[in-house]
Amino acid sequence: MLFFNLQSTIIDVRQGQMFFDDDLNDQVMAISPYNTTTMQRTYNDEDSILAQENSNGYSAYVDASLIGADPSGGVLGFITVGVDSTSKYSVSSYNYYSGGEVFEAVGASSTADILASTTSP
Questions:
Q1: What pTM does this model have?
Q2: DSSP for 13-62?
């Protein structure tokens, strides 16, 4: 799964998720530094967000291919993202980058926190 934030020049945040096939995820999670994470993994068939995002004819999966023989050589992926610029939501997440080599849970953050940090001098 890939989290992303899109910010426009009007300080507007769009947050979403993209998903990778679990077979690829298994390969990536077996190599360093991902094999040392303490975060609990959610598999695609258990993910209610994937079920919502992957409906109505849409695909939330990244079309991914290995660049080399395995994921350590890199992964190239393609996906089309549409943004509804009129929608307004408030979301919270515990999955933000805290530094270092691996993403770890660092505490709750919300779109309000993100907006506050982008408007501070």
A1: 0.61
A2: EEEEEEB--HHHHHHHHTSTTGGG--SPP--GGG-HHHHHHT-TT---B-
